[in-house]
Amino acid sequence: MNIYTIIILAAIVAEFLLSVVANALNLKSLSKELPGEFEDVYDEDTYARSQQYTRENTRFGFIAGTFNLAVLIAFWFAGGFNWLDQWARSFGYGEVITGLIFIGVLVIGRSLLSLPFSIWSTFVIEERYGFNQTDAKTFVSDLLKGLMLSILIGAPLLAGIIAFFVYGGQWAWVWAWLAVTAFSMIMQYVAPTWIMPLFNKFEPLGDGELRQAIEEYAEKVDFPLQGIYVMDGSKRSSKSNAFFTGFGKNKRIALFDTLIEKHTTEELVAVLAHEIGHYKKKHIVKNMVITVLHTGIMFALLSLFLQVPALFDAFFMEQMSVYAGLLFFGLLYSPVESILGIFMQRLSRKHEYEADRYAANTIEKPEEMVNVLKKLSKDNLSNLTPHPFYVFLNYSHPPVLRRIEEIRSAWS
Q1: Could you tell me which residues are annotated as the binding site?
Q2: Which residue among the candidates 275, 354, 368, 379 is catalytic per the annotation?
Q3: Per-residue model confidence as pLDDT tens digits over 95-129
Q4: Is 275 among the catalytic positions?
């Protein structure tokens, strides 16, 4: 074993063990006593089901994570990466096409290995708790559409990145950075109108009490209301959600049909106010800037490690290549990515608080936000008492009790 083998192996095992510890603490923090804040929403049976749902998903996640780690290590130390590389090279194509074959086979292999877990999660666990609305036809259709998008969008992007590093010289990382940034911007613009409708229907919110209330609120806060859509989330799950996507003329707010079905007009305006809060606080722009800077740093470091033979030796490779280097650098970079992920989760939680405060300060009935959060927690069987360490590692949104406290403090 060389130093890169030790670093990468230690990193992926440490990340797995950290996850195990966090999950164990999270399960231990489950409280049999329902928090008083939720006594008007939960009954004893629903609260017990929410805790069992957390336990079952945690156990399932541990099994899936253990399997994935074991497969990676076995494939690695059996010389699987080198064998696959030699097989891909045997077709006699250049490095770009060979790289697409090499990475494509790995992606397909990983997808096939994860398929049974996806099926079990969807049709057993989610079905058991009354969430699953997906039928076999929709499930298969989603897989095929995802494969189609990978071929039509992902493959050209990957080919471009490989080509930049093969032919771009010392500034290849800059060209790759600019290309990926441009691609991301374009996707932000086209995804709402071209890609997302492949998976869900988006219907403009019709005239009526809800639309009138939304328009009045948008006018009050000077929000350019360009698109409020109802998404058929019930096609796959009974869970509820809302989100803001896109920018410019293509930005839109999407409300799940399940959300509209289960909440009052005042509560839905509160949800919308939260999403507008993200826009007003420029959270989307801030996240995009951070992502662009992070991508640039990552490509700059990648350009250095592509020239390090010891990195390839760590995976028993006979020959160096850009495409294999992309994968191996990703594994080497994983500890940095995990640390950055923790900071990004913290930033995301901060943004959620800010959006909550904005909504609480701009709607006429801030308590409606509290009602929405409580109902969503019940409908989605959320864990009401997550362990702080688990939140620190994994939560992009603050725990619901903390959000409620912050909302009340914003307008009390």
Answers
A1: 274, 278, 352
A2: 275
A3: 999 999 999 999 999 999 999 999 999 999 999 99
A4: yes
